[in-house]
Amino acid sequence: MINEVYINKAAKFLPNNPVSNDEMEDYLGLINKKVSKSKCIVLRNNGIKCRYYAIDKNGIATHTNSQMTALAIRNLFDNNVEELKKIDLISCGTSTPDQMMPSHGVMVHGWLPETNAMEVVSPSGVCCSGMHALKYAWMSVKLGEATNAVATGSERLSRILRSDVFEEETQKLIEAEKNPYITFDKDFLRWMLSDGAAVVQLTNKKNENGISLKVEFLDGVSYAHLVESCMYMAAEKNEDGTLKSYMDYSSNEIIDNSILSIKQDVKLLSNKIVSFGFDKIISLFEKHNLKPEDIDYFLPHMSSEFFRSKMAEMLDKNGMHIPQEKWFTNLSSVGNVGAGSIYLMIEELFNSGKLVKGNKIFLTVPESARFSYMYGLLTVC
Question: 186 and 221 in one domain?
Fold first, then answer.
């Protein structure tokens, strides 16, 4: 039997107090005791006003990724033990697990000792991993394999954005009498990324009271066969565009070249991220017999407000105009939380009191790592 699937609850956990733009280097530190050259430029373009970090000003972790995710799940059920026991699937997406092994999902489960034995999955990836987790939970409930699933998206990036991650590299540049600033592809992301977790509950029955979100479809596409990697971590890009794994570096080389830091090819990002993703929307709307005017809320995951006008232009070019008053994001207030961003948007909108039955919500999540995309449609019921 194929079930209808509904999002009945949404919750979040954001660590500590919001961090303003002026406070960022208090938490992330100065590299070589110098203010970043790129900080003001990046912040001016990305439109982020505050974000959350799971570290204190000394760089000491206050929460792990899995802890934050488990706390968001507890918030989802008001920490009610009987409700936690009813969960029969946890599906967790992140690009920054606390360790390579065990998986992120089982570590989240480990922070929830009140729950029962259950299936746990951990889709890998970057921003799309959260949507992949959502799709796995949706399909499981749809097929009757689960009846009370939880899907999550989370990140903890602040610790690897700290200046001490780059100190060895910059010190060697000084000794070599070269420019003692880290390259823009590394520095750029220090002003873009944030920590946090958000979750949704999926079941085959809608809420008797209040609203639910019926999941109409979740669809994805990858263009990795056409273009090289754009964002990467624990690797370095070779001249031919391939990646050299951290496993192929010596321990000293890993430190000297900050191989474990996250990097982004900004030029490749600008050239490809919008065009690839929005070409797919045309065929997706045709497939599901949708028109732009059917959409009441458009939730685009944007790493930066810089892309808003480019996205709007591409939609208009494709004859798919969606007025700005229908766009809903919370990038400026929570920052870019990668795999958690779309969940944070859903959570805020779901709990806003703005939704009315019949509203249609279109989700789009681009992932620049090697240009993959996820889309979804929710109907308020």
Answer: no
* Same domain? 336 vs 310: yes
Q: 3-state class of 19 per DSSP?
A: strand
DSSP line for 157-223: -GGGGSGGGTHHHHHHHHHTTS--S--HHHHGGGGTB--EEEEEEEESS--SSS--EEEEEEEEEE-
145 in a domain, yes or no?
yes
Q: Is the peptide bond preceding residue 102 cis, with omega within 30 degrees of 0? A: yes
pLDDT tens-digit map of 254-296:
988 889 888 888 788 877 788 887 778 989 999 999 999 999 9
Helix, coil or strand: residue 377: strand
Q: Are residues 189 and 282 in the same domain?
A: no
Q: Is 231 helix (H, G, I), strand (E, B) or coil?
A: strand
- 57 plus 120 within the same structural domain: yes
Identify whether the C-beta of residue 101 lies closer than 8 Å to the C-beta of residue 114.
Answer: no
Q: How many independent structural domains does the chain possess?
A: 2
Asked if residue 204 lies in contact with residue 2, where contact means CB atoms within 8 angstroms, the answer is: no
pLDDT of residue 172 exceeding 60: no
Residues 76 and 173 in one domain: yes
Do 101 and 85 touch, CB atoms closer than 8 A? no
Mean pLDDT for 318-342 is 96
C-alpha distances (whole Å) from 208 to each of 14, 122, 217, 282, 328 are 29, 31, 22, 35, 27
Is 170 among the domain residues? yes
Report CA torsion sign: 332, 334, 336, 340: negative
pTM of the model: 0.94
Can you give the CATH number for the domain in which 54 is found? Answer: 3.40.47.10
What pLDDT, on a 0 to 100 scale, did the predictor assign at position 180?
42
Helix (H) or strand (E) holding 293: none
Q: Which domain holds residue 297?
A: 215-225+266-380
* Same domain for 53 and 67: yes
Q: Rounded to 10 degrees, what is the CA torsion of 337, 309, 50, 360?
A: -60
